[in-house]
């Protein structure tokens, strides 16, 4: 072994020896990632087979892509796909900017006590599961007991079945999604705002700029790289319209507007025991997500210097 190779190995291994405890701590998450995220990929083979639990994955016969052919002749899948895209687009247009605006508003609060209370209240819903929140939402919008309908009837209106109405279900979905995630989603933007160079604000003060002008011309452009990265990642999950939220809130009366790919997979796989077909639908969804994230990153990289890679 040459002296140059020995030197390279020594300079590589010495820092690792010094941080061996940190690498040991990293070992458990890596093992968990491998066991729960990579080993299950073996099950993707089910999408290409006529799966029989008795025969197992390898024993089941190959199906010549029959499940993928079936996708586009299945009315329920087409409906779920269009609902998923529609709900995701609405969430991108309406819900995605909400944490940005909330972070900008929080940054303008000068009373620290009020700021901490506001942040704590806004963060709280994120740490509650949709199982708990959906029970609260169902009570709030209940036609008999809900406070929303109580206010409506107090002004002479008729009770509205919000969660059973095709007209009102999607607005309730968007509103509750913003309520749950706006506070926690603002954290990363607040961190980006904290890294803005203070001298820019000082220069703006000397030029006579007000708080709104500074927010518009300094704060917002400074956090734009972070906004772009999160937007690209959000596009990558465009076929994730909120499985937990919809599963706990929807019912057969609103399937026409609320049934998404994830709930369709849930019913096909776990309720109807079509494991192979449900796997094919899930694989299709993931492939589309990868295409979206690659395409969005490529387009944004052409128009600006920002991107994921």
Automatic annotation (TrEMBL):
Location in or out of the cell: Cell membrane
Chief location bin: membrane
The protein, known as: ABC transporter permease
Originating organism: Paenibacillus chungangensis
Family: Belongs to the binding-protein-dependent transport system permease family.
Stored CDD domains: TM_PBP2
Keywords, sorted A to Z: Cell membrane, Membrane, Transmembrane, Transmembrane helix, Transport
Source species, domain of life: Bacteria
InterPro entries (UniProt xref): MetI-like, MetI-like_sf, UgpAE/MalFG_permease
Pfam families in the cross-refs: BPD_transp_1 (PF00528)
Transmembrane segments: 21-39, 85-109, 121-141, 182-201, 222-243, 277-300
Domain named ABC transmembrane type-1: residues: 81-296
Bilayer disposition of the protein: Multi-pass membrane protein
């Amino acid at each position: 072994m040459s002296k140059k190779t020995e030197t390279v190995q020594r300079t590589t291994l010495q820092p690792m020896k010094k941080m061996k405890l940190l690498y040991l701590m990293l070992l458990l998450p890596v093992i968990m990632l491998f066991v729960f995220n990579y080993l299950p990929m073996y099950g993707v083979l089910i999408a290409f087979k006529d799966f029989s639990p008795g025969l197992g994955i390898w024993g089941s016969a190959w199906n010549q892509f029959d499940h993928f052919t079936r996708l586009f002749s299945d009315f329920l899948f087409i409906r779920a796909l269009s609902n998923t895209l529609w709900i995701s687009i609405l969430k991108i247009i309406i819900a995605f900017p909400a944490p940005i605006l909330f972070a900008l508003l929080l940054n303008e609060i000068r009373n620290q006590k009020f700021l901490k209370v506001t942040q704590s209240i806004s963060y709280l819903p994120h740490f509650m599961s949709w199982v708990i929140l959906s029970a609260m939402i169902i009570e709030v919008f209940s036609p008999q007991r809900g406070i929303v309908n109580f206010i409506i009837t107090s002004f002479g209106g008729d009770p509205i079945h919000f969660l059973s109405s095709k007209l009102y279900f999607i607005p309730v979905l968007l509103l509750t999604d913003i309520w749950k995630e706006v506070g926690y989603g603002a954290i990363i933007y607040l961190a980006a705002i904290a890294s803005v160079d203070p001298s820019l604000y000082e220069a703006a003060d000397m030029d006579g700029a007000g708080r709104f002008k500074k927010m518009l011309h300094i704060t917002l452009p400074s956090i734009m790289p972070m906004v772009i990265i999160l937007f690209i990642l959000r596009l990558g999950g465009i076929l994730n319209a909120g499985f937990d939220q919809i599963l706990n809130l929807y019912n057969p009366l609103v399937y026409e507007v609320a049934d998404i790919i994830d709930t369709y997979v849930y019913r096909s796989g776990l309720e109807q025991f079509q494991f192979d077909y449900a796997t094919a639908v899930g694989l299709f969804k993931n492939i589309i997500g990868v295409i979206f994230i690659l395409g969005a990153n490529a387009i944004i990289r052409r128009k600006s210097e920002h991107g994921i890679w």
